[in-house]
Amino acid sequence: TNVEFLAQYVLTQYTLAPRIVRNSPDLPLVVGNFIDGPPAPGFLEKHGLVPLRDLGDGLILYRKERKP
Predict the structure, then answer these.
(1) Which tens digits make up the pLDDT trace of 10-51?
(2) Strand 29-33 to strand 49-56: parallel, antiparallel, or no bridges (unpaired)?
(3) Of 42, 43, 48, 39, the residue nearest 66 (C-alpha)
(4) Which sign does the torsion angle of CA 46, 53, 29, 9 carry?
(5) What pLDDT is recorded for position 45?
């Protein structure tokens, strides 16, 4: 639900402060919060996201793959 999403978003922002968190897969570094399961098939490839580190508990750090 929107309330659950907002709560997770605020918690992520608080945890990663002073870094600013934006809800976008199109940044150089992306934190994936997959507490409800993995992303939809093809989502990571579509956005050029490559996993850097599995942080546990559904959190994964991705980097944006550079296009040649």
Answers:
(1) 988 888 889 898 989 999 999 998 777 888 899 999 999 999
(2) unpaired
(3) 48
(4) positive
(5) 94
How far is C-alpha 42 from the chain's CA centre?
A: 15
What is residue 10's DSSP assignment? H
* Nearest residue to 60 (alpha-carbon basis) of 38, 27, 28: 38
Q: 12: closest CA among 54, 40, 4?
A: 4
Q: Is 49 exposed, middle or buried (0-12, 13-18, 19+ CB in 10 A)?
A: buried
Residue listed under structure tokens 């942080």: 55
Q: Can you tell me which residue has the tokens 């409800």?
A: 36
